[in-house]
């Protein structure tokens, strides 16, 4: 599936809208004002955007479709949490590819409660898309749907934490580097979605009291590791 | 701080509103209709509720205030994640204490997009309240704000997973029992908010490949444990 490139009229509408929002304020700008400045008819606006709010987040519908397609294209054996993290990088790029626009919009959404609500619904749709993928892939795990929902929320929160810091600093610093650190934290907590009870993998986790004598620790590890190389 | 008990006029407004919402639909009901049925003036409505949406979620302002107070009352040495989990139980009780009302509202919010948006903003305010508490208590941990945001989101997602299942099943089953299981999953993943890299505590976590030779595992543990009893 390929996505049609953005038509210039659409770009012109976004540009006109933001010029007016910044000049006279969001509430004081009507769709009428926007189409007049862009030099197009009112109908053209609604061909591209569902509402005035829609023009503030012009690329999310497309990115949501891309993310959905990206997730559905993953192989059965693939780590679903890793795939969702990859999708999150795609979403973040929507902001970091255009810092000036992203920072302008951030200032706008901070001051207009209606836009804040709209943004929450956009974030929620990403979260449900991630959760949907994880629910499907973790269906045979105990509490698969719970795990899916919790991991999706954690991944989105990690993304948002990085995004907000970056926007607050007016696009300074490398958000893509910061998000790696944030996603690593989430992945350390949840692994591949199996969580603390995973058993069939190549990794053993031993938790021990700091003051435990070494012989006791070794015994614990031996029992966790199971039969050694020589016994197999 | 004590919270005033609910005045009967407020209850009467909620009751009238829901009767009309169910009879003729949410969009078709005006504030005028609600005050007429309740037999009070229009001003009384707006004394209790900021908007028509507000009457659909009549108890959340109060519960948010209670949760904020509950969190701020926790001792310095207390596990902040445990405290947030306790606050989540308070929020869930708002629903489970009144199953009929909760299920009615769930049906309503499912069909009215504006209410769904309002609900998202309510959930978001709880999440930010939890995150605020965790941010304060994890301030001296590495990436404290990130941890706080991620854990708050995970806790809220766990709550919502349980709540949605319970509402979908029309209030069948014990949601308070289910939420314990869900919160246990989150707490297993994040512990007390220290996460995988905590260092100043009495517990050492070693992750090792299953096939690693024992001498290598022992060496890793020794370095993680630091100087042994005899060297201290």
TrEMBL record, chains A, B:
InterPro entries: DNA-bd_HTH_TetR-type_CS (IPR023772), Homeodomain-like_sf (IPR009057), HTH-type_TetR-like_transc_reg (IPR050109), HTH_TetR (IPR001647), MftR_C (IPR041347)
PROSITE patterns, per the entry: HTH_TETR_1, HTH_TETR_2
Oxidoreductase recorded as keyword: no
Residue ranges: DNA binding: 30-49
SUPFAM superfamilies for this protein: Homeodomain-like (SSF46689)
Keywords for the protein's UniProt record, in alphabetical order: DNA-binding
Domain HTH tetR-type: 7-67
Highest rank taxon of the organism: Bacteria
UniProt key word DNA-binding: yes
UniProt-recorded name of the protein: TetR family transcriptional regulator
UniProt source species: Streptomyces fragilis
